[in-house]
Amino acid sequence: MSGARGTLPRPTRARIGVATLLAVLAGAGIGMALAREPGTQRADPGGPRVGLRSGAVRLPLPAGWVPLDRHSSLPGLHDATAVLGAYTMVALDLRPPEDASLLPAALRAASGGTLPEPRLDHLGGRPIWRYEIAGTRERTGVVAMALPTTGGVVTIACQIDAGSAATARYDCGEAMNALRLEGASELAPAPEAAGRIALPGIVAMLNGERRSGRRALRAATSPGGRGDAARRIAMAYRSAVERLRPVAAGEARRLVAAFAGLARRHLRLAAHSRRRDPIAAERAGAAIEHGERRLQRLLVAFSSRPQAGSAVPRGPGGARARLSRAPGARAPAPARPARSPGS
Question: Is the pLDDT of residue 336 over 80?
Fold first, then answer.
């Protein structure tokens, strides 16, 4: 690990045996708990090993590390679990992706919105992104390592104090090396990784709104009803834009643009339906169907070809990010009523 393992002395700290502790990550959406590590604890004469567990992620703490039973005080990581590592304060976090950098959005904000370019490391047999973020005071900062997985993004961050980033890199590397995934798979860190994790859930929600909205569009018997149904689908596409845009980079931006375009086309369909313009409504419906075919091709290409060695993120029930079948969008408004003679 960048030579740190061979140059840093291992500190002498008494191992501390503790009971099972709970430290839920407030507001992170995915809880992380402290628990005894089964099996290995009996072989450890210094007391029970303590580990972090959340969903598919399990982290046996290295010997001598001390869980602090509180949240982290590191900038931008106040929802993370705090642990005292061999040399530094360590923050351990698991949450859905919030930023294309793979770091929590609050950590980006705490850095002034500008992050250094990530460095690609390989730890524990996995590729990860490593950031070294300068602090507000001289010779301080944070080393942050991000591992994208099909179950969320794991962030391990370590405090840089007194200008030594080597000790922070060492502790973060120790934690990342010990990390285990159960029921999830790592993804290669890339500009599109955050979007790949988020996309299946976004598309699943969009599909539900789209199916019900299309049924309502077909069943509506009034211009106002058709306009309301089309507007409802437009809002579903707009919601997809708002959820994907913060984590979109690289090829994922094309999906944001496609979602936004379909939101606009459904709004046009709503307007034409309300105006009882059947020709314009028919054209708007055809444009929607064309746009959705293009979106489907983008989804297939984006979610089927992740980086080499990566798994494919899936949505609820193991589904990939695909548009589901739904009634067509061509539901023209009724023709204008014929004028009465002499009118």
Answer: no
Burial class of 318 by CB neighbour count within 10 A (0 to 12, 13 to 18, 19+)? exposed
Identify whether residues 131 and 273 lie together within a single domain. Answer: no
Q: How many CA atoms within 13 Å lie on the side-chain side of 272?
A: 22
Q: Is residue 168 part of a domain?
A: yes
Element (H, E) at 203: helix 193-219
Residue ranges of E strands in the chain: 33-36, 50-54, 57-60, 66-71, 81-84, 89-95, 119-123, 126-134, 141-149, 152-160, 180-181
Counted domains in the chain: 2
pLDDT in tens, 113-134: 789 999 999 998 899 999 999 8
Together in a domain, 139 and 282: no
Task: Give pLDDT tens digits for 200-223.
Answer: 999 999 999 999 999 999 999 999
Q: What's the chain's length in residues?
A: 343
Quick check: is 334 in a domain?
no
Q: Which residues, in sequence order, are CB contacts of 165 under 8 Å at separation 6+?
A: 132, 141, 143
Segments forming the whole domain that contains residue 198? 193-318
Stretch (H or E) spanning 294 = helix 278-304
What is the pLDDT, as a whole number, of residue 137? 76
Q: Residue 60: what are its φ and ψ, rounded to 5°? A: -70, 125
Tokens of 327: 């009634």
Residues 121 and 174 in one domain: yes
Cβ atoms < 10 Å from Cβ of 249 = 15
Q: Tell me, yes or no, whether 163 and 218 share the same domain.
A: no
